[in-house]
Amino acid sequence: MLELALSGRLQNAHTAKAAHTHHAFTYDFKLSLAYEGITAIYGSSGEGKTTFLRLISGLQRPHQGRLIFNGKVWQDEQTFLKTENRDIGYVFQESRLFNALTIKANILYGLGGKWKKLAPETQALVTEVCQQLGISEWLNRYPEQLSGGQQQRVALARALVCRPQLLLLDEPFSSLGEQGKLSLLHYVANFTRKHQIPCLFVSHSRFEIEALASYAVLLKQGKIIAQGEVAELVTRLDLGLSHEEQSTSLLKATVRAHDHEFSLTELCLGNQIVWVQQIDVAIDQAVSLRIFSKDVIVSTLEPVESSVLNHLIGTVSEIELTQASRVLLVITIDEQKVLARITRKSLINLGIKIGQKVYIQFKSVGLGAISISNT
Fold first, then answer.
1. DSSP H stretches of helix in the chain
2. Pairwise CA distance, residues 48 & 138, whole Å
3. β-pair partners for 220
4. Which residues of 59-86 are buried (b: 16+ CB within 10 A; e: fewer)?
């Protein structure tokens, strides 16, 4: 369990670089998290995400507060445990590698630096991590010989091989493209689950959050404005996540069958079926579907003779009250929520009301990223 109540003021890292500004950053973090899984810390730039991690790591000392990790006091009125005594793995926004050391020496640095002195199981772990992160061929190179994205993979490997008590990730995937980072995100999720390492993951990319984390904490101006399951937060109409242009819904499903003739995979969503482009996932494996709200078509009549394979039955549970041209609907399907963005004119013409049964359609090609569920 991670319990914290930290507050104070400090110079805003995003404004301190400008000579003409002297804004102070006020923070007030009060939080209790289970000692498991990956928790995303989400928010726009300047909202306090990096500050949050630095205070937890001990790199910055809060003005006042209490921090307890897994039953051990890291900070209170009498105690302040130094960073090096907190057994934390920290991957920063920049790689922070040692330029004078080879990639292999950088990775082994936290393990004492000597390969021959490592236990066989640790050597096997290092080899496996390097292979999975795609850096095995770079071990004899130096950091300056790698790109920024490659250096970030090395920094991540350096943190993972130490198997810390707590892993802190501060936007380490920002230099990678979405498709290139998906397998990396899955590996990190599987590694932390296998080795039972809780992780706090900072990002302003909802793609990363939705692919990696199951729980999220939303920050705004140094304060926690919401926390909960990611799938629940993204469909809350009172939060900014649902109003972003690329707003999505996350639905849990299981693989039911593969149709090799048509290169499709059949998924089971409660008592209903969803077809997606064929994925390399075993039967009965849990997956998470990412559906963009702008791609959802809502109808009060059952669709017939349509080229769209997927149509689901649900109940309208929420309607956004607005005078804007577009409105958001929350539709409940087998106890899961789907966010749909339609025009206000369509809402009125169809006479859609809360509690009404509706049909939703979406093309399988519009599902976006499909990731193995980390629940």
1. 49-57, 103-108, 120-132, 148-160, 178-194, 206-212, 230-233, 344-350
2. 35
3. 223
4. ebebeebbbbbeeeebbeeeeeeeeeeb
What's the CA angle centered on 182, arms 215 and 329, to 5 degrees?
50
Parallel/antiparallel/unpaired status of strands 286-292 and 370-372: antiparallel
pLDDT band (50, 70, 90) for residue 238: very high
Pairwise CA distance, residues 209 & 230, whole Å:
8
Q: Are 38 and 19 in contact (CB under 8 A)?
A: no
Tokens 């080795």 sit on residue: 195
| CA distances, 182 to each of 51, 125, 210, 371 (Å) | 26, 22, 11, 8
- Residue in this structure with the two tokens 């640790």, named with its chain if needed: 122
Is there a contact between 270 and 335 (Cβ–Cβ < 8 Å)?
yes
Q: What tokens were used for 36?
A: 């498991």
Transcribe 27-50 into DSSP letters: EEEEEEE-SSSEEEEE--TTSSHH
The token pair that represents 303 in the structure block: 């669709």
Between CA 331 and CA 313 the distance in angstroms is 9
For 288: left if phi > 0, alpha if psi spans -120 to 50, otherwise beta; the answer is beta
CA torsion through residues 107, 207, 148, 130, sign:
positive
Read off the pLDDT of residues 178-201 as tens digits, 9 standing for 90 and up.
666 888 888 999 999 999 999 999
Note the pLDDT tens digit of each residue in 6-60.
888 765 544 333 333 335 668 888 889 887 789 999 988 888 899 999 999 999 8
How far does CA 294 lie from the centroid of its chain? 21
Helix and strand numbers, DSSP H then E, in the chain: 8, 20
Q: Would you mind telling me the total number of residues written for the chain in this entry?
A: 375
Contact 53, 168 (CB under 8 A): yes
Q: What is the CA radius of gyration of the chain?
A: 23
Closest to 204 measured CA to CA, from 30, 24, 14: 14
